[in-house]
Amino acid sequence: MLDVAPVQWRVIRTVRPKYSCRSCEKIVQARAPVKAIARGKASFATLAHVVVNKFDHHLPLYRQAEMMAAQGIDIDRSTLAGWTGQAAALLDPIVARIAKKASRPASCTPMIRRCRCSCPQGQDCASQAVDLCRR
User: Is 49 exposed, middle or buried (0-12, 13-18, 19+ CB in 10 A)?
Assistant: First the structure.
């Protein structure tokens, strides 16, 4: 049997009670949870949902806003655009790391040497590949 569960939106409310010491009058409160966007209302999962729908599923932001409105979530298209831009800023270190790994200098490319085993003459043997960089 095949079943589908539609996207379920929920509001996460964080309660951080304050406690005080009667003798020293010091106030203590638990730390706030980490947010994807400072003072933002979107969780990491919400940002991932918006970005994947936009760039992988080719779903424009106005259509995403309409779909959310049909489920009772009223979010403006400009808010979704801001979230998309801030999610891109969060992904910049990952993109930079991939670009750094992808653009190795030419001296670091693997070299294939002629094989001296029982291969037919003139054929390059992949088992003799040597990575000069070793990074």
Answer: middle
